[in-house]
Amino acid sequence: MSEEIEKIRNSIDTLRQKIINHQVYSIIKDVDDLKIFMQYHVYAVWDFMSLLKTLQNNLTCTTVPWFPKGSAETRHLINEIVVGEESDIDLAGIRKSHFELYLDAMDQCGADTSQIKKFIATLKNTGNFDSAFLAAETPKEAQDFVNFTFEIIHSNKDYLQSAIFTFGREDLIPSMFISIVNDIHKNFPESISIFKYYLERHIEVDGDHHSHLSLQMTSNLCANKQQLWEEAEQATIESMKKRIELWDGVYKQILNKKNTIDNA
């Protein structure tokens, strides 16, 4: 297991460093910049939940009548992750999914949630992603990010879903970004206390415990099948590229905003 895991880690290290050291973090200077970041990032938070529930559906029995499905060890791993992601606690101790917590954070700082809400409402009514993207005027980079996630979801290959879940989503929040958020929080605690809490929960729960569980889950699914590990590696590389493109989109949008203000 450890040998194949390390092979993937090594193959994505350059891309991972590009994400961790992306210029988008250094351009975020205030709450208004953070709002733009969140309006893009919320799509990744949402489709993370869809990826999570796909894994639960594929690895456990979620229909009635119930029958044992797959490995009990793997069922335990995904179910424990789902509990933490789908029903965590907010600052007041109220149970919420991480997506709902993120929406609360957006509302608190004044970020526009109408776009993501329009996207979800349209998708729920039509089942058509193109229509939902169009209705919500979703940024192209966010569209591409979500489309890739659902391409993996629709592959029906649980080991690919687990791989991008494990390597493409966890442990990608750099200390620099945490420092920036903490600095903004000092000046505007009433605006981003929920977002600060969200990041802290992500690091505490996702980056440590859930990361360990998801690594084990991916190892269980790929087992000793070299072909599966190779496919998992390629899917992970592509998922990292999509994250970089998403951050590129955020960076350009914030830069355009700053240039518009400077030229006004």
The largest β sheet comes out as: 2 strands, antiparallel
The stretches of 5 or more residues where confidence is low (pLDDT under 50) are none
Identify the overall geometry: globular
**Number of E-state strands:** 2
- In percent, how helical is the residue content? over 70%
Mean pLDDT over the full residue set: 91
Give a verbal description of the structure.
With 264 residues, the protein is mainly α. The chain is built from 12 helices and 2 strands. Strands 1-2 form a two-stranded antiparallel ribbon. Helix 8 packs antiparallel against helix 12.
List its traits:
12 helices, mainly alpha, two-stranded antiparallel ribbon, 264 residues, 80% helix
What is the strand and helix layout of this fold?
Blueprint: H1 2-20, H2 23-27, H3 31-59, H4 72-86, E1 88-89, E2 95-96, H5 98-109, H6 114-126, H7 129-136, H8 140-153, H9 158-167, H10 175-187, H11 189-222, H12 226-263
Antiparallel strand pairs: 1-2
Task: Please sum up the structure shown.
With 264 residues, the chain is an all-alpha fold.
